Amino acid sequence: MFNYFKGGAIMKIMAALVMLFVLSLFSTGAFAQTLEDRVKILEDALMKQQETINEQRKFIEELKAEVKQTQPSALSEGSAPKQVVETGQIQQQVQELNEKVDQVVEAQRKVLPSEFNPSIGLVGETVFSYRSRGSSQTGSDRPGGFDVFQRSVELNAAASVDPFAKAYVVANASADAHTGEATFGIEEAALQTTSLPWNLELKAGRFFGEFGRLAYIHDHELPFVNRPLVLSQYIGGESRTDGLQVNYLVPIEHYVSLTMGVGDNFGGDAPNPDNPGEFRRIGGLNFWGRLSSDFDLTPDISLEPGISAMWNPSTQDRGGPVALPDGGTLTERERRLTGVDLVLSYKPLRNNQFQSLTWGTELLHSDNRYDVNNSVDPVFSRSVNALGVYSYVVYKFHREWSTGFLFDFVEDAHNNKAQTTAYSPYITWALSHWNQLRLQYTYTDQNAAAVASGLRPDHAIYLQWAWIIGSHSHGWQQR
């Protein structure tokens, strides 16, 4: 497969392919630009269907005439069985053709306006919880003690734009941690191609960039209640970005997928609003990539490895200055993140609806550069290397029931001496494909450096209730 990369770097090839796609969009006859053109395409398709129906009806009439000609007025004893068999075969063919014609006619009756209606779905998620510490001692934006949190109300719509692309929108209303008021916002709104040559797929707009294993998964789709600590700290939650992403399916027998993207933000931590910058050079953008594959070790066991990387050469003071224990501050100037993930699944072919075992893990390495400013030394630059990992196992023992365990470990991205560890057993009851309950207990431990920063060990219990109505293209059951 390396022949595809001769003569230049991967980024040059991807840039050339994107340019060819953009040029093709503006070439004559690439696709319909107006609603009238799209209606004209549908009318032409219906005319072709009508021609097919007419041809099939004509053929049926010819077969019926042939059947009548082959029916003798009187059959001799020797030839009767053979002629009866031939007549029966012809009648069966006529019946099959009649059924096919009926199917075409039924398809033709589809109302034209429905071709433009998107599939719409709604997801709701409520989290009931109790935490033994207050928010100042846990670092959470949710209060300690008893809490009810409507974490999301997600409205999504998806449809084909034309024969060459599809689009989707995900709007989310999340409650503010302090006021409880829901803030409506667009989580995703992207256009995705469906018919590019050379195994390419292009996505543009606002979407979750493909990095790692769970960073581009919505909260209600996770196999546990809360997002792993390392993803929350190093990425900022979900890997949301406004940008462009290209996926390339390597043309070999084995499945290998390569994804590369560029965007202005990456994750939940936006640039500092007090210092947005009036001019952004190319180094101010985020660049990411992911290489993944899939191996069938046995008919029942599969292995899915992946590697990811993200680089922001010149961050726009992401999140603002961070206070240090000695009174100084850290201001981020460069962001570098790499990761390795692995999922091992056992799903028996004969019983996968009632039994399965999945183990997943991901290791992330953060290597960010900061400007340090304190009262002792002048401003200088410092890199902080930090590691984080999560690992989970899920055992499905019934069509509706599964149980699992999540292990979390993360070093603070600003102070790698401060370490947090969490242990979370949980059980999930999937009442149906549209209704799910999950009970989880989490114990969070802090080392001495983390305690010095004000954090404390914590016990928590969560009850998550999530539901779906309508269509949901990225739901936990892939509806």
Explain what you see.
This protein is of the alpha+beta class. It folds into 2 domains: 35-113; 123-470, Porin (Beta Barrel). Helices cover 20% and strands 43% of the residues. The protein is built from 6 helices and 18 strands. A 16-stranded antiparallel barrel has the order 1-2-3-4-5-6-7-8-10-12-13-14-15-16-17-18. A hairpin with a 7-residue loop joins strand 15 (401-411) and strand 16 (419-432). The longest helix has 36 residues, at 35-70. The protein is elongated, with a radius of gyration of 29 Å. Residues 1-11, 20-33 and 475-479 have low confidence and may be disordered.
Based on CA inertia axes, which overall geometry fits? elongated
CATH topology of the largest domain: Porin
Helix content: 10-25%
Query: Structural class of the secondary elements?
Result: alpha+beta
Tally of helical segments: 6
What are the secondary-structure elements, in order, as H or E?
A: HHHEHEEEEHEEEEEEEEEEEEHE
Low-confidence stretches: 1-11, 20-33, 475-479
Distance between the termini: 34 Å
Within CATH, the superfamily of the largest domain carries the name Porin
Counting structural domains, the number is 2
Oligomer state equals single chain
- Radius of gyration equals 29 Å
Largest sheet: 16 strands, antiparallel, barrel
